[in-house]
């Protein structure tokens, strides 16, 4: 099915099932319990999981296959976002034109940047992409083009949002008092179905499932690229580009194609971000955002199929869940202890949560890089091996159930 | 090739594990109880049904405005305490409205959640969204930058909750980016300009040549425009206005051309760390000891805060600026607030803390008066609402743009500070009439409030 090998197909199916049931899986704790702090099954975060999953999967096509480390991919995400928001301001609040435009525009820009940056490799390539990204960030942040032509292109620091007064030539005029909302042929991105079972509350959000569908498509495409002759060429670039050139192969079209494809993935992620939350600001192009996707990919496992998605999930979980644990929350956790002891535990734990969530992320990143150079995927692989081995040993002793 | 094979092998292993996992997940899904209680149709987003109500405090805890954010959070906690009847009641005792009884809001205990905006609009919106979607917050407040305030305000409008802006000074928050569900108590760039101009004319005369250094972002532009138009209206001339990058830390290359330009006044449209650095550079270059056009060279900082004055140290002495509120104000409300803040934390509150505290009380009071948490009811209760006793004298929440109109303080760096908090002295309290403007003033054009949104 889908022209995939059996192993890849089962991986795709697993990912599909996980994303389908994410509202259940990410909400393991009852809504009223103290542990509900760790629930991640609310629409915004679930959307972020899959959208940044797309971003990281795309980045992995470039970094994981060719080994070219781009430090400017957030710029393409930002460009995609701006393209999408302009579609929403000018054409329609339907997300389809917005998403298409985000992919196309990000593709064009990444072609330009890639054309120039790919003249160099290694650290010089990284620096070039970083320079481009920061240039684009500055252009967006001070809205230089907008100022030059006496209008607004990026909206500067305050960014852009759809407004009631925007033209939107394809849409019927808004009802008086209504706000423009992103929708897919009438299905609003923000609309959710809530399911209460005993103490649990599960939210099924339209926007999430649309983003999840896009993620599955992107993931499927990435599997096909990984398994294609084109993917093989990209791997050859990573293992020894010089030797490749000596055999008479020009590797630049391949690397450029990979660069543009990953740029389009970033654009898709940017477009989806706007579709889910109709606003864009220049900060999403800042170099730290580019660094984030590098961290996601390395954390999950460079060059593996599922790794980047895992990495994106872990990082976004930390950013959104850990950072919200404040001292008040800690006090309720440790309130069962005697005074001195609870103070001690609060002080220690407080170092790693709330605004210090970066510390925890840093520690985890270090541990992964040192002990699991292949990322979380390697961790899973090792665990899997261990279980399989012990399973085999057991098989020697006991009869299988079937 | 070897690599490829290995990967395939790995994947097949993964998949075997995965099949088990898939089975487990599916069976778990099937085993779920079949009694589904469809969600009861709420009248508005996050209608509080239990014995408590949750407010969302979205402040910068990391990044360049973390100091302001920390102070804002202190103020919020104090406000919650007072709303729930703990502590000495603070400004509840001096507030002209007596609707709040110290038993929570509408009898519900007030709880709160916090989030980190990182002074980035994306992060701020993510954090606000999680408060709305996950924690059931019925009101979001905070922010220490106009970009963030504008972004979160628009989000709250879409989601159908109330946004009570924290420290945001740009005209756009209640100008071209105003929203029906958003309210701002803090003053704005226009008011700074209007309040400063007469004081400057008095102190420095009406024939000055001004040189602007402006932080290169939205707030900088609106402040530059406001100060420029109000000073030009009284006869000053603007020699040049130069944009400086927000990330700049050394302003020497921007200060050097000032003297060659023939200007005799330097206006620093900078905030936070920017202002601390640019002012320090300007003083180091000896600008303040220079004579130009037969006059003493002067420096002006349109938006002052105590935290900035602290950073710039002795350099702020004698420099004019404007501020929303200062702890040395002698009215009853300010004194009550300073007293309870000081008792709890051991130092006086900043203007950011003040505006956040007041916004929380105003929201609670509006809910109490409206008898409902429904955003549209709150909007109605706040629009064109007049109150007193919250530290700025008689104040009006104008219905046309959801901006508070109140007296503005013109301050000056103190010559002989008595403590590390006593850095600014109040030169003049500009009466509200002088800083009031038409809602369609050119500096505020291009936006529409729309109508309030109750959400779900």
Automatic annotation (TrEMBL), chain A:
Subcellular location field: Cell membrane
PANTHER family listed in its UniProt record: ABC TRANSPORTER ATP-BINDING PROTEIN (PTHR30482:SF17), HIGH-AFFINITY BRANCHED-CHAIN AMINO ACID TRANSPORT SYSTEM PERMEASE (PTHR30482)
Pfam families found in the cross-reference section: BPD_transp_2 (PF02653)
Topology in the lipid bilayer: Multi-pass membrane protein
Organism from which the protein derives: Tritonibacter litoralis
Single GO molecular function: branched-chain amino acid transmembrane transporter activity
Lineage, top ranks: Bacteria, Pseudomonadati, Pseudomonadota, Alphaproteobacteria, Rhodobacterales
Name listed for the protein in its UniProt record: Branched-chain amino acid ABC transporter permease
Main location: membrane
Transmembrane segments: 9-26, 46-63, 94-116, 123-141, 206-226, 253-273, 293-315, 336-353, 359-377
UniProt entry keywords in alphabetical sequence: Cell membrane, Membrane, Transmembrane, Transmembrane helix
Presence of the UniProt keyword Transmembrane in the record: yes
GO cellular component annotations of the record: plasma membrane
Organism domain of life: Bacteria
InterPro entries in the cross-refs: ABC_transp_permease, LivM-like
């Amino acid at each position: 099915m889908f022209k995939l090998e059996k192993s890849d197909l089962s991986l795709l199916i697993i990912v599909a099932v996980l994303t389908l049931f994410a509202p259940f899986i990410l909400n393991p704790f009852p809504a009223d319990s103290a542990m509900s702090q760790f629930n991640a099954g609310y629409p915004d975060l679930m959307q972020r999981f899959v959208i940044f999953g797309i971003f990281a999967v795309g980045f992995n096509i470039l970094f994981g296959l060719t080994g070219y480390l781009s430090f400017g991919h957030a710029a393409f995400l930002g460009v995609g976002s701006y393209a999408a928001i302009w579609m929403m301001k000018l054409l329609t609040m339907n997300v389809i034109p917005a998403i298409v435009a985000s992919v196309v525009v990000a593709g064009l820009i990444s072609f330009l940047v890639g054309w120039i940056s790919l003249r160099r490799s290694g650290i010089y390539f990284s620096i070039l992409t970083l320079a481009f990204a920061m240039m684009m960030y500055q252009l967006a942040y001070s809205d230089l083009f907008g100022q030059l032509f006496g209008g607004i292109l990026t909206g500067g620091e305050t960014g852009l949002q759809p407004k009631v007064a925007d033209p939107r030539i394809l849409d019927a005029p808004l009802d008086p008092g209504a706000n423009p909302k992103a929708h897919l042929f009438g299905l609003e991105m923000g609309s959710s179905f809530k399911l209460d079972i005993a103490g649990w509350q599960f939210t099924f959000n339209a926007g999430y499932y649309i983003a999840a569908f896009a993620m599955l498509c992107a993931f499927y495409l990435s599997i096909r690229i990984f398994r294609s002759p084109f993917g093989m060429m990209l791997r050859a670039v990573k293992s020894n580009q010089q030797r490749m050139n000596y055999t008479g192969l020009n590797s630049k079209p391949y690397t450029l194609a990979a660069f543009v494809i990953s740029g389009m993935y970033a654009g898709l992620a940017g477009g989806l971000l706007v579709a889910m939350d109709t606003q864009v600001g220049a900060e999403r192009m800042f170099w730290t955002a580019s660094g984030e996707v590098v961290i996601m990919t390395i954390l999950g496992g460079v060059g593996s199929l599922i790794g980047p998605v895992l990495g994106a999930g872990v990082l976004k979980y930390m950013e959104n869940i850990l950072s919200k644990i404040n001292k008040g929350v800690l006090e309720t956790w440790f309130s069962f202890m005697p005074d001195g002891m609870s103070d001690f535990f609060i002080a220690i734990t407080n170092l790693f949560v709330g605004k210090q969530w970066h510390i925890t992320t840093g520690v985890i990143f270090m541990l992964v890089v040192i002990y699991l150079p292949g990322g979380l995927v390697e961790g899973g692989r090792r665990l899997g091996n261990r279980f399989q081995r012990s399973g085999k040993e057991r098989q020697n002793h006991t009869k299988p159930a079937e | 090739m070897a690599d490829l094979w290995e990967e395939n092998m790995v994947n097949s292993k993964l998949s075997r594990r995965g099949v088990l996992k898939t089975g487990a997940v599916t069976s778990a899904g099937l085993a779920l109880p079949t009694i589904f209680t469809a969600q009861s149709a709420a009248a508005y987003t996050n209608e509080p049904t239990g014995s408590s109500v949750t407010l969302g405090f979205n402040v910068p805890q990391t990044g360049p405005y973390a100091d302001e954010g920390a102070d804002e959070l202190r103020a919020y906690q104090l406000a919650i305490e007072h709303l729930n009847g703990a502590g000495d009641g603070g400004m509840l005792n001096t507030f002209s409205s007596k609707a709040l009884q110290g038993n929570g809001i509408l009898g519900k205990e007030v709880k709160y959640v916090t989030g980190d905006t990182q002074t980035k609009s994306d992060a701020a919106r993510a954090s606000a969204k999680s408060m709305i979607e996950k924690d059931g917050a019925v009101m979001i407040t905070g922010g220490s930058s106009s970009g963030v305030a504008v972004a979160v305000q628009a989000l709250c409008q879409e989601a159908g909750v109330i946004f009570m802006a924290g420290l945001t000074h740009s005209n756009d928050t209640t100008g071209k980016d105003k929203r029906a569900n958003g309210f701002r108590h803090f003053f704005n760039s226009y008011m700074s300009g209007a309040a400063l101009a007469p004081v400057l004319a008095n102190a420095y005369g009406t024939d000055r040549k001004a040189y602007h250094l402006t932080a290169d972002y939205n707030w900088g532009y609106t402040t530059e425009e406001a100060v420029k138009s109000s000073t030009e209206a009284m006869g000053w001339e603007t020699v040049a206005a130069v944009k400086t990058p927000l990330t700049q830390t050394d302003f020497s290359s921007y200060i050097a051309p000032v003297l060659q330009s023939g200007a005799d006044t330097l206006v620093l449209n900078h905030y936070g760390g920017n202002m601390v650095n640019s002012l320090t550079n300007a003083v180091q270059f000896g600008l303040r000891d220079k004579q130009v056009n037969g006059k003493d060279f002067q420096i002006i900082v349109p938006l002052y805060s105590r935290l900035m004055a602290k950073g710039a140290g002795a350099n702020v002495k004698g420099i004019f600026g404007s501020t929303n509120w200062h702890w040395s104000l002698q009215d009853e409300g300010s004194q009550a607030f300073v007293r309870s803040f000081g008792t709890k934390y051991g130092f006086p509150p900043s203007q950011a803390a003040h505006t956040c505290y007041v916004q929380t009380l105003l929201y609670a009071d509006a809910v109490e008066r409206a008898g409902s948490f429904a955003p549209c009811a709150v909007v109605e209760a706040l629009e064109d609402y007049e109150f007193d006793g919250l530290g700025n004298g008689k104040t009006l929440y104008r219905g046309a743009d959801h901006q508070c109109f109140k007296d503005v303080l013109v301050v000056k760096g103190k010559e002989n500070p008595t403590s590390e908090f006593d850095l600014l002295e109040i030169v003049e309290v500009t009466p509200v009439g002088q800083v009031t403007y038409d809602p369609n003033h050119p500096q505020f054009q291009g936006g529409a409030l729309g109508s309030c949104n109750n959400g779900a």
